[in-house]
Amino acid sequence: MSDDLVISEKLIFNGLEGGFENMIYTAGEKLQELGIVKSSYPEAVIIREKEYPTGLEGVHGNFAIPHTYSEHCIGSALSIIRPPKPLEFVRMDDHSKSILCGLIVLLAIDKPEKQLSMLRKLMRAMQDVEIFHILESERSSKAVVETLRKICL
């Protein structure tokens, strides 16, 4: 990824209530305010998650990386969503099983060829206990942003 990836404290969401769809709409509204996604983005993420689940069992904890097609994105950004209680996600590797995820990394990627590379970077980074702990539970949004920049830029 290059410098056109937006990683900002404005895109760190702690304790959002109301379930998965509400969280995606809340984050999507902020991404839209920042000119990163189109108005179609939140609904497209929700639909894609139903078709292609993104829940992943990690070595240090479970996480999900919901995203959608680049046609709904104007730019690229990462958002971190940390719900008050873990949310149920269908596993990416076994659609017959669900897991609870306390960390959601919401992707908005404007070029399809960048998406797989970003997913790989994130999945690799989640295997590091320190990185996972910072992204999942660090209270300082600044520390979360710095960690994401080290991973992605």
Description:
The protein is α/β, with parallel strands linked by helices and 153 residues long. The protein has a single domain (5-152), classed as 3-Layer(aba) Sandwich (Mannitol-specific EII, Chain A), CATH 3.40.930. Helices cover 40% and strands 20% of the residues. It has helices at 19-33, 41-51, 112-125, 129-137, 141-152; strands at residues 5-6, 12-14, 55-56, 63-64, 76-82, 87-90, 98-101, 103-108. The strands form 2 sheets. Strands 1, 2, 3, 4, 5 and 8 form a 6-stranded mixed sheet that branches.
The rounded distance between the terminal residues' Cα atoms is 6 Å
CATH class, please?
A: Alpha Beta
> What count of helical segments does DSSP give?
5
Helical fraction = 25-40%
CATH-defined architecture: 3-Layer(aba) Sandwich
- How many strands in all? 8
In round numbers, the mean pLDDT is 95
Query: What would you call the structural class?
Result: alpha/beta
- Counted up, domains total 1
Contiguous uncertain segments of 5+ residues: none
Shape: globular
Looking at this structure, what is the CATH superfamily?
Mannitol-specific EII, Chain A
The largest β sheet comes out as:
6 strands, mixed
CA gyration radius, whole angstroms: 14 Å
List SSEs in N-to-C order. Answer: EEHHEEEEEEHHH
The share of residues in extended strands comes to: 15-25%
How would you classify the quaternary structure? single chain
